[in-house]
Design goal:
This protein has three helices and 16 strands. The chain is elongated, with a radius of gyration of 20 Å. Helices cover about 15% and strands about 40% of the residues. It has helices at about 1-20, 80-85, 175-180; strands at about 35, 50-55, 60, 65-75, 75-80, 90-95, 95-100, 105, 110, 120-125, 130-135, 140-160, 170, 190, 195-200, 200-210. The chain is mainly β. The protein has a five-stranded mixed beta barrel with strand order 2-4-12-16-15.
Length: about 210
Amino acid sequence: MRKILALAAAAIMLAGCNNNTGNTTGNTTSARCVRPLPAGITTDSLTDCTVPAQFTLADFDWTAQTLTMTVYSEDLYDAVDISQLKAGDTIIYQGRNIVVAKIDDKDGFKTINDGIENDGADLQAGDGGTYRAIQLDDHSVYTTLGKATVPVASDLVVIDCGIEPTDPVDTIRTDARSYLQKLGQRDNFSELNTQVLIQGGKVTQITRRWIP
């Protein structure tokens, strides 16, 4: 079912692009559509990867030693595609089709249609020939891939930020379960600040960084 939903979402996104894409005829070049790069993983193939994820303490099954989480992918764009964007093209951003009216380029940032606060888009140059879709507070834009239940390694490591940005980071290498169960109101992990490392099909590390 997860694969079907993912394929359906991809089909809808592709259809939106196709509505704005045509062929070159004579001296007139039709508008292009730029979409995020493929995630490269599915929720059925989480073997060796690091994924943004959302979950709470209630999503751990300590008897079965599993974690059920919502898995996301960070929205990245090919830098060449972004460099070729022009007025009249379309970019898929936060699941929306945005027709480009203007592009501002400064210090590694591209602001489309005056940015997210004006129903546009904001992008930042990243590693590996990509641009990162960003939203308010410099958070990345993420796409939901679906839910997955993954075994948790017995030697799970938790690297956790403090409440305040200057608080020291806790690195828990033994009895991660006990640490997690004492988090109280901080037991909600978000894709905006949480990365889950999966090795050999098991969750081996959970890292949460401080965000505004």
